[in-house]
Design a protein that fits this description.
Layout (H helix, E strand, L loop, with lengths): L4 E2 L2 E6 L2 E12 L11 E11 L3 E12 L2 E12 L3 E4 L9
Antiparallel strand pairs: 1-3, 2-3, 3-4, 4-5, 5-6, 6-7
């Protein structure tokens, strides 16, 4: 069924300098048997601070579909010009 999913997101700040953060959600409004009353499938919240030499980023990710229910907290530390270290490479810029 077309138009039954919605994925809004917002991001504020500059990931290269200062405070930044954002959030995104994924909703599925299609009625399916056996699923709970919530139409929220997943959400992500990202917050960080970028200095001249490095950046620190934390992210909380939730996923809830049927029996699968996950909540994951990850972080990264980026050294400019060298790379990103942590449990998730969310601070790595794609080239």
């Amino acid at each position: 069924l077309q138009g039954s999913q919605w994925s809004p997101s917002v991001f504020l700040g500059n990931s290269e300098r200062g405070l930044f953060g954002g959030t995104s959600f994924f909703f599925d409004f299609q009625n399916r048997p056996g699923r709970g009353s919530s139409s929220l499938i997943s959400s992500t919240a990202t917050f960080g601070y970028a200095f001249d030499c490095c950046a620190v980023t934390v992210q909380n990710y939730t996923f809830n579909v049927g029996l699968r229910n996950e909540n994951r907290f990850v972080f990264s530390f980026r050294l400019n010009g060298i790379g990103t270290f942590g449990t998730e490479q969310i601070g790595q810029r794609s080239r």
